[in-house]
């Protein structure tokens, strides 16, 4: 408690010191608006704020999280119908749009230790008297990883830490092979789907994932029900679909999963795992880990269970048997529209998913109820006579948890229309207490910074922008602290994957934002039966103050985008960010070259063996190939062109509205800027991902790779492809700069 109070106190002090640099709430002309339009818009936003009610969020959460509502469930369909009725009452033209997707559910789950003794894992999350919905066993999905293949395998167990490529490199260095063996990895370090993917590439025959208490349990804080964190029986369910290849229905890549869609055979689905995989609790993991033989793992690999962590490799032996019902299930998206009065063919789309692995009070209902209250308040404005200039679309997506299915299938089905009409997509998911997180297209960075400056934090006497900035100054690294203190706008994060913005941004090239609060909420219920209303009301946003604040942030963003005279895109922040990415990939080759030269010299001299811990098993590595000089000139020249075009547009448009008769044309150019960052050919070996600036990493899953074609080619030491991708990205930036030039000429 003391450290938290100290942190807040320091944050308040630092916020006060930087507040003078920020635009005060309520002052200045809003981006995209005239002075008169700004006054009218602020009055609308004040009315919007006044109508928001925290009790609505609480009531809807109790309704929507009352029963398990996973993909294809009766409760999931009932929730969709309930939400559709609410949107209709609020004045939206609403429908439920359904798709049919592959969704496996388990019929056999068995994990047993067969030697040195026989022990069968429980694979069960018990009901708790303190949690009123945890006893709904007949309606709950059991703990499993969706899109694991069927399998019955037995083999020695090897502990692989987080199961990332770097962890397997460490195993290789020590001469430990997983070929023909079963691996056990802890959650963390990378998205869960990467763990069985890399294990299979290294020759493993099965994969177990567990939640270690060091990351997600008693090491972090008191466990549920006494505290917020994962107890010994809690299990993190989740999809292990290979989403870095493509999200959505595995059988209908690139096309909507309608009833009459052409589907590939199950055996041809690329995104299924190659080996069986199952998640377990740390209570079930303990006897497996306790019996591992081999050397003791290095300190960074050690968890918090009361045992010595070994690599294994011979003992124990473990059997995994998994069988699934490979069914096609109907999913239901709720789509609600309010037509624009001036530009009806320019859409501002706002979404949050509604499906959950079990009851899902935190994930996703905490974000969904904020979206619903936001839509209700906009409906009240419309009933009082206000109309948006642009069409507003609210969506509640189904089957996000399995692989962004609801949003992906909708986007693929309506791709032609969206390519013409979609201006911006705004996404939320789970929501908690604390600090505003902002990620998305950097063409919207200045816009969302301005929105955040105008929303007050419910705990502190400052804006949510000031509080987030103060946190960055207090807790960031040296460079991040300096930048947060000196840069006029906070830098928003680049988006990888993990939520429903992916098909909009990375497949279609629709400028997107992902928003939410967190940092002070208790964790530990994620994807378990304990993600419940009881858990959330004790450890989440208990009074829904930050739910209302999220409604204010997203509601303002929607209202400003819908009402602006000109869409509030800005390009100097984007150009600045691209400059950091270009510098990063350039430095990456320099660092790799230096590391390679040093490693090879140490190998040649025999010194590398001498610096190893004498207790470690060690296999002398092979020398690495030379890192050649790569010509980044085309990329650097394109960056200069981009920077010049961005500066020219800023100068031409500063303080001006679009000339009469050109407003619609200008908006169309601005919308097309993000489209110009995509390529119909997509990224190497994954053509579904078309965006050339942002993508989930092939071996990170949710984690973003910026300039992904160039960066990943370098990381994989494919120098020919790196050169080719430099040319692709340079051409992309040239196209983007040309669109900015078109817009500037209109002024």
Summarize the structure.
With 747 residues, this protein is an alpha/beta fold. It is 41% helix and 17% strand.
CATH H-level superfamily title of the largest domain: Zn peptidases
As residue ranges, the low-confidence spans are: 1-25
What's the tally of helices?
A: 24
Name of the CATH first level of the largest domain = Alpha Beta
Query: Overall mean pLDDT score?
Result: 93
How would you characterize this protein structure?
- The chain has three domains: 34-100 and 329-463 and 510-563, Zn peptidases (Aminopeptidase, 3-Layer(aba) Sandwich), CATH 3.40.630.10; 102-326, Glucose Oxidase, domain 1 (3-Layer(bba) Sandwich), CATH 3.50.30.30; 572-745, Transferrin receptor-like, dimerisation domain (Transcription Elongation Factor S-II, Chain A, Up-down Bundle).
- The chain has helices at residues 2-19, 35-50, 54-64, 74-89, 165-173, 194-201, 213-216, 282-290, 361-383, 400-403, 405-413, 415-421, 445-453, 464-475, 478-486, 501-507, 533-539, 545-563, 572-605, 607-610, 633-653, 663-675, 708-715, 719-745, and strands spanning 93-115, 119-120, 145-146, 151-159, 182-186, 206-210, 238-239, 277-280, 312-338, 343-353, 390-397, 422-427, 434-440, 511-519, 694-696, 704-706.
- It contains 24 helices and 16 strands.
- The relative contact order is 0.14.
- It has 747 residues and is of the alpha/beta class.
- It is globular, with a radius of gyration of 26 Å.
- Strands 1, 2, 4, 5, 6, 8, 9, 10, 11, 12, 13 and 14 form a twelve-stranded mixed β-sheet that branches. Strands 3-7 form a two-stranded parallel ribbon. Strands 15-16 form a two-stranded antiparallel sheet.
- Helix 2 packs across helix 9, helix 3 crosses helix 9 and helix 21 (633-653) packs parallel to helix 24 (719-745).
- The longest helix is centred in the last third of the chain and has 34 residues, at 572-605.
- Strand 5, helix 6 (194-201) and strand 6 form a beta-alpha-beta unit.
